[in-house]
Fold this sequence. Notes:
There is one protein chain. By secondary structure, the protein is an alpha+beta fold. A hairpin with a 7-residue loop joins β2 and β3. It is globular and about 40 Å long. The relative contact order is 0.18.
Amino acid sequence: MATINANVAFKKLREKGFTVSDQKYSDFKYFEFYHNDQLILHTKLTRGKESTLGEEVIRQMTFQLKLNREELFEFLEGEMTQEEYVELLIERGVISEEGE
């Protein structure tokens, strides 16, 4: 099974326009994605010492980010741009085109 490095995931989420939530949680860092100043979705990463994300976290991220597993790896490996991600969310009805 392919794995995702937690530090790379953190960095790539930030590069793709996700912001770290101001809320303080002991176990997780929450990431929020805004489009046109509207919160669209969020995901979380554990704050533990784990260097790779486990299968359960990967499964949860695919659901939270509205991606399939292959798309999640493309997103976090830099093969999918923020613009492509927004287009995909529009196609899937997560983001309304009226907000464009």
